[in-house]
Amino acid sequence: MQQTFEIVVIGGGPAGIAAAVAASQSSKRVAVLDDNPRVGGQIWRGGPGLAQPKAAARWFYQLETANVRVFNGARVIHADASARTLQAETTREIFPIGYQNLILATGARELFLPFPGWTLPNVMGAGGFQALVKSGLPIAGKRVVVAGTGPLLLAVAAYLCDHGANVARICEQASSSSLAAFALRMLAFPGKLREALSLRYKSRFAKYATQSWPVSAHGKISLESITISESGRLREIPCDYLACAFHLIPNTELPRMLGCHLNQEAFVETDELQQTLHQGIYCAGEPTGIGGVELSTIEGRIAGHAAANDKRAAAKLFPARARYRKLAAAMKQAFRLRPELATLAKPDTFLCRCEDVTLHQVRQHNSWKSAKLHTRCGMGPCQGRICGAAANFLFGWNIESARPPVFPARCESLAAISSLTSSLTTETEPPQFHGGFQ
Ligand SMILES: Cc1cc2nc3c(=O)[nH]c(=O)nc-3n(C[C@H](O)[C@H](O)[C@H](O)COP(=O)(O)OP(=O)(O)OC[C@H]3O[C@@H](n4cnc5c(N)ncnc54)[C@H](O)[C@@H]3O)c2cc1C
Question: How far, in Å, is the centroid of ligand 1 from the Cα of 316?
Fold first, then answer.
């Protein structure tokens, strides 16, 4: 039977938790759905109980004591804006949830760019690797290189050092002058600066190289070494793991499927109350712009208050949001990707890791849609989350469509949602039934 809530939040990261807590201060019925076993999102992964920062513990306490129904392990795979209904899949079932107002707080993922050897075992996304270590992967004594760009590198390196890894190098593609300019901007955010210095202190035995990025990864069965470019010179570094992230990109599949408008930079467009162009659909956190945990929670609170129709409480938070948006703008500027990164992949490098489609095969096409239709690029289990973002960076292609299910789903779930969607039968793109579903 369908349960209906006045306010439903998708995503239990900092933005979603803050949105739910703020919304619950009204008398409205509020629910949060998150696909992880516990709330916390990327940064507070593992949820309450684990050693977490004080801010996280406060938010977990507020959520636990608020009148909010939390659905853990529930992944929203379909959302129908006209019926105001979601379909969420757990390991056991698929169930509908009705809503009056919806808050999308679906977060971000790391951008992973192709280079020769990037598909070797033990070459991983930096955040994904950190999540594996958090789940118990032993790394004490392992040699790790952390590479890419953005503050995530330092956070991951510090975490790995804390857990006994031998972090050989942190390769940051940005130049030292960009980083110096960013550090100056951070003087206005002493808390963030202290946090960055503390992360660097924890990872102090790892060399932090600027203007440095991976060129190729080598190994017979799994990773043995990587070649990096460092200030214009090539250098080979032996390592057991490469943790790689070229900053973050927003998870906008669900907002796009609901018809929310994206701006030129592919972030969800919202008004000052975090409402999308759809009445009653709000968006908060990383999908509206990569800005870090503080901005995510502030936007979450604004969206929560606004969805509960408390515009006055929402408006009080506008100055704090404006302040952290300045930091987000400085971060964007500092960690802008250099064009050389688009030249690393060779013609025989796989662009689509799921369907083994090479760069050469994809290059024969002039759009994402055409490449997908002819090569199955983007139609494997990740459904284009990795290669689509890479193609966007390499070719400037617009990754237009987002269709249900937004994640690979079980057949029974497909049957349940097929009654709700006409798009599976009316879209001109090929249905994704073969590789796209588990
Ligand atoms: C891999 C990774 C690791 C990071 N590690 C750090 C770190 O160590 N330190 C740091 O300062 N910052 C880190 N960040 C950045 C930090 O996560 C963000 O600044 C902040 O957490 C954003 O909060 P959010 O709520 O907007 O998104 P998130 O924290 O990403 O939360 C979004 C949540 O929504 C869930 N979700 C998405 N789609 C659905 C769906 N369809 N159905 C159900 N649930 C869904 C996600 O699983 C996730 O739990 C990391 C980011 C990433 C991507």
Answer: 25
Instruction: Report the predicted TM-score, pTM, of the whole model to 2 decimal places.
Output: 0.93
Which protein residue has the closest C-alpha to ligand 1 atom 48?
41
How far is the first Cα of the chain from the last one, in angstroms, to the nearest whole number?
25
Residues with Cβ within 8 Å of 201's Cβ and at least 6 positions away in sequence, in order, are: none
* Coil, strand or helix at 155: helix
DSSP string, 376-392: -TT-STTTTTTHHHHHH
* Residue of 8, 36, 42 to test ligand 1 pocket, by largest number of atoms within 8 Å of CB: 42
Distance CA 315, CA 300 (A): 13
What type of residue is 65?
Answer: T
The amino acid at 253:
E
Residue 160 lies in a domain: yes
Q: Judge if 30 and 57 occupy the same domain.
A: yes
User: What is the CATH number for 140?
Assistant: 3.50.50.60
Range of the domain at 272: 3-108+249-332
- For the CA of 156, the closest atom of ligand 1 is 8
User: What ligand 1 atom has the least distance to the C-alpha of 195?
Assistant: 11
CA of 281 to the centre of ligand 1 (A): 20
Task: Kindly give the number of the ligand 1 atom that is closest to the alpha carbon of 300.
Answer: 25
Atom of ligand 1 nearest to the CA of 407: 41
Where do we find the tokens 């857990």?
Answer: 163
Residue 415 lies in a domain: no
Q: Which residues have CB under 6 Å of ligand 1?
A: 10-16, 33-36, 41-43, 75-76, 105-110, 127, 152, 155, 248, 251, 254, 285-286, 292-293, 296, 406
Q: What is the pLDDT along the chain (438 residues), one digit of tens a residue?
A: 789 999 999 999 999 999 999 999 998 999 999 999 999 998 888 767 666 788 899 999 999 999 999 999 999 999 989 999 999 999 999 999 999 999 999 999 999 999 999 999 999 999 899 989 988 899 999 999 999 999 999 999 999 999 999 999 999 999 999 999 999 999 999 999 999 999 999 999 999 999 999 999 999 999 999 999 999 999 999 999 999 999 999 999 999 999 999 998 899 999 999 999 999 999 999 999 999 999 999 999 999 999 999 999 999 999 999 999 999 999 999 999 999 999 999 999 999 999 999 999 999 999 999 999 999 999 988 889 999 999 999 999 987 677 888 888 888 888 877 766 554 444 434 334 333 332
Report which protein residue has its CA nearest ligand 1's atom 12: 43
Bridge pairing between strands 166-172 and 207-209: parallel
Ligand 1 atom at shortest distance from the alpha carbon of 17? 25
Nearest Cα neighbor of 281 from 264, 317, 257, 251 is 257
